[in-house]
Structures are given as C-alpha cells and as structure tokens.
Design goal:
single chain, 189 residues, mainly beta, 6-stranded antiparallel sheet, 41% strand, globular
Length: 189
C-alpha cells in the first residue's frame, strides 16, 4: 500500500496495491500488520456501511470522549468527496480540513483520526460507503459541526442549496459556536 501524507499530520490517504489481469482485479483492503507499521497502531472493532444517492451529505460527525473514534473509510460503489476537519482545541490546524475523492475506481481509503469531525457528499448517482471504527458507536456521545459551515472553506462539489441532509445534521453548530471536547495536547489514542 502507498501512504499519502496530507496537510494535517495523522490524516492519511491510502492507495492499495492492485493486481489486475483479464479476470478483473484483487487487492488487500486491510492488513492490520501493514496499517500498524505504516500508519499507526489501531484496533478496529466495528465495520459500517451506508448507501446514499446523489446530493446526500452526511456529517460532520464525531463521537465525544470517552467514546471517540478513528475511522478508516472507503467508497466501494460510486464516488464521494470525503472530508476530515480538525476540531482539536489548541491544534495548529484547528478548523482546517482535508478533502479527498474516494471512488470505486481509485480504491483509495482515508484515515480519519480521533479529534476530527468527518463527513462526505455523494457525487455519483448512488454510493456505497464503508468504514471501520476503532471504538463502538454510542448514541449518547454523538456530536457534530455544521456540514454547511462556509467558514470551513470546503468545496463539496455539489450544489449545497439542494443538498439532502438528515434532520440531525441540520442542527449542528457552526465551528465558531462550537465548544470542542478534544484537546490537541491530550492523546486521543
């Protein structure tokens, strides 16, 4: 696998090594050994999958301590723009984001560490999105910031005035009104 460092340390893009022939292709989508040596040590405990149609935006979500989660995400059908926003108080990259297009063709994966809000926008007719989490989901720990916060400077590549959002995602605060539960100087691993 090829690890692509991003502008925010710890947030990485992973390109798997594809083996193609006349039958199709094969790749190793996850190896704990390789991930632990090339990215960081992590123990994933839960896999999730969602299906969404064009214009759906999900996020920007996180789990509050002590139920924080790192995520390894990928799009297995269609295309999404996937985004991680640094919400660690005191971080030199607080409020900054990394965006990557994940598609069924590029097979890229995106690692979103704890202390980041995560979301995506569906760019294709439909998308099937999978993610591994290193902590179990706890509904009482749900948190989020507004996916439509213009101050974040995210180009979602879809018309956001027609975006399809859950009711919950319309109620998250803007970053300027948000009191982050994450501290840059405290290890979240």
């Amino acid at each position: 696998m090829n690890i692509i460092q991003t502008s925010i340390p710890g947030v990485v893009i992973i390109e798997p090594r594809l083996f193609k022939d006349d039958r199709g292709y094969f790749f190793e989508s996850f190896s704990e050994r390789d991930f632990n040596t090339q990215v960081r040590e992590v123990k994933f405990v839960q896999d999730n999958e969602s299906m969404s149609s064009y214009g759906v935006m999900r996020g920007l979500h996180f789990q509050r301590p002590p139920h924080t989660q790192s995520k390894l995400v990928r799009c297995v059908k269609g295309a999404v723009l996937d985004v991680a926003v640094d919400i660690r108080k005191g971080s030199p990259t607080y409020g900054q984001h990394v965006a990557v297009e994940l598609t069924e063709e590029n097979h890229r994966q995106f690692f979103v560490p704890r202390g980041f809000a995560h979301g995506f926008a569906v760019l294709s007719e439909t998308a099937i999105f999978q993610y591994k989490c290193d902590n179990f989901y706890h509904p009482e720990a749900d948190g989020g910031i507004s996916i439509l916060d213009d101050s974040l400077g995210i180009d979602w590549r879809i018309p956001t005035d027609h975006a399809i959002l859950s009711e919950k995602d319309t109620k998250h605060p803007l970053l300027k009104d948000f009191d982050s539960p994450f501290d840059f100087n405290v290890s979240l691993y």
